[in-house]
Design goal:
Helices cover 53% and strands 16% of the residues. By secondary structure, it is an alpha/beta fold.
Length: 502
């Protein structure tokens, strides 16, 4: 039986395994980005290609259907039923009208107004004219101001204040009213003639020389309403100056510009009428389609419903696959790291070092070397999270603690003057600790760091030393080589003080 046969069963700490994976977070992030970009690009290209194939297939099918239909009609000499043409045109017109109404309801400011809480502004003007010109001039002036509001010229002046509303909607929201019943000072008359029987009836009505007229406007907000009132005052005043020479000289004075909140049932009725018209048009479209189906069935024709080609959005599909790729990349890299942890054969954990290797772990230097790394603060945070309070001990202090532990182990054995430092890792990995050890234990002679597993001369040199200390590194040293160098030292009856993990 092999005298070195071991019955030790290696235990794996899930906490250490988790921290091992977390310390490789750069690999995980790189894998996530790589898989995400690959998955997103693949889905984007496949979606674009799929859309092209669908379009080409639909175009080919349509061409084949058109050719078959033409061939059938030419062979049978059939003439298309005029009822079919009528309903097809009716359906096409209804679809266009529904699309127009849907666009209007979506974009129209009037359809979005709350008719029960409307900001409304009113601008009142006082209009006075000289007595000698009052006969017809006042009526012409009122008509001119009314036309200025009613024919859209004032709406053009207000257009642009609210970017969301059109000129036609502004025109709908404007109103003009005139009341001169309180100021009758003139005896001028206006003649009206009306045909009555076979004669002519002449009526004389007294006309005022001064009146008050109001211009009202409804806006989408109070701020817009304030700007409307200011612009109306400027526009009407400018138009009044123009009428001084075109019709008659007159006085135009601003009485008030008032803003308030009101309920306008006419707008509510307008909105209801638009919705009712839209509902009616939908019903007409459905009725036309039903009637067309009935006509086609009566002719024994097969009703073909043209299906709309639904094309996938390549960007949206690519983003979704990229997100899935991020998660998948994280899982793939985590799985790979777990396999490396389990199957690499390297020294990953020191919790059961004595049971696994049969020698004492004298000390462990866990603090990372001071190296600037990209997002190094994350590495520092993970180190503190893993080690807890021990993470507050500096690297130099941890090396001195390990050296003191080694000194204590050597003091228990009498006559130890020469100790060999050996291991399975590179010399530069232990140079810092070797310097600290020689400085801390000046009464003991230490060899230069050697690798007895790989160097026959170093193995022969081992006989000249009283004891041996192994220097290993987590994640670098191989467990198999550590056991091998222990066997080499034990086979030469050299005292093994233990191992220091650096």
């Amino acid at each position: 039986m092999n005298e070195y046969q071991e019955t030790y069963e290696k235990e794996i700490s899930l906490v250490e395994l988790m921290f091992y994976c977390l310390k490789k977070w750069r690999w995980i992030v790189a894998a996530m980005l790589a898989v995400a970009v690959a998955a997103g690009c693949y889905k984007y290209m496949s979606t674009v290609k799929g859309n092209q194939l669908r379009q080409e297939q639909a175009l080919l099918e349509k061409e084949n259907e058109d050719e078959d239909e033409t061939a059938d009609r030419d062979a049978e000499g059939l003439i298309k039923n005029p009822n079919v043409e009528y309903y097809e045109k009716l359906i096409a017109n209804s679809e266009k009208e529904i699309e127009r109404q849907e666009t209007y309801m979506k974009d129209s400011v009037i359809m979005k107004l709350d008719p029960y809480h409307l900001p409304r502004g009113t601008v009142s003007f006082y209009l006075n004219i000289a007595d000698e010109q009052a006969a017809n001039a006042l009526e012409n002036l009122i008509t001119a101001y009314g036309n200025y509001v009613g024919d859209g010229r004032l709406a053009e002046e207000l257009f642009g204040i609210d970017e969301d509303i059109s000129k036609a909607e502004i025109q709908y929201l404007l109103s003009f009213s005139c009341d001169g019943q309180d100021n009758y000072r003139s005896t001028s008359t206006t003649n009206f003639q009306a045909a009555q029987g076979g004669g002519v009836l002449e009526v004389q009505v007294a006309m005022p020389e001064q009146v008050i007229f109001e211009i009202g406007v409804v806006a989408s907000s109070e701020d817009v309403c304030t700007e409307y009132l200011s612009q109306i005052e400027k526009a009407v005043t400018a138009y009044g100056n123009q009428l001084q020479s075109e019709i008659a000289e007159h006085e135009l004075e601003l009485l008030a510009a008032v803003q308030s909140e009101k309920t306008d049932m006419s707008i509510r009725k307008y909105q209801s009428d638009i919705l009712s018209s839209y509902t009616t048009e939908l019903g007409n479209l459905q009725s036309s389609r039903t009637a067309l189906e009935t006509v086609l069935e009566e002719e024994g024709e097969t009703i073909t419903v043209e299906e709309e080609i639904v094309l996938a959005n390549p960007v949206s599909a690519g983003v979704k696959f990229a997100i899935v790729g991020l998660v998948l990349g994280a899982f793939l890299m985590a799985f790979l790291l777990i396999l490396i942890y389990l199957m690499s054969g390297r020294l990953q954990s020191t919790e059961t070092f004595r049971e696994e290797f049969g020698m004492q772990l004298l000390g462990e230097v866990k603090a990372p070397a001071e190296k600037k790394k990209f997002f190094g603060f994350i590495d520092t945070w993970l180190y503190h999270l893993e080690e807890g309070a021990y993470a507050n001990i500096s690297r130099d202090e941890q090396m001195r603690i390990a050296a003191a532990s080694l000194k204590g182990a050597a003091a228990q054995k009498e006559g130890l003057k020469k100790i060999m430092l050996t291991g399975t890792i590179a010399k530069e990995d232990v140079a810092e600790f070797c310097g600290c050890l020689k400085e801390h234990m000046q009464d003991t002679v230490f060899s230069d760091y050697r690798q007895i597993v790989f160097d026959a001369a170093a193995l022969e040199e081992l006989d000249g030393y009283d004891a041996v200390v192994f220097l290993e590194k987590k994640g670098v040293s191989y467990s198999k080589l550590i056991k091998k160098e222990r066997e080499l030292a034990s086979g030469r009856d050299i005292l093994v003080l233990g191992t220091v993990a650096v």
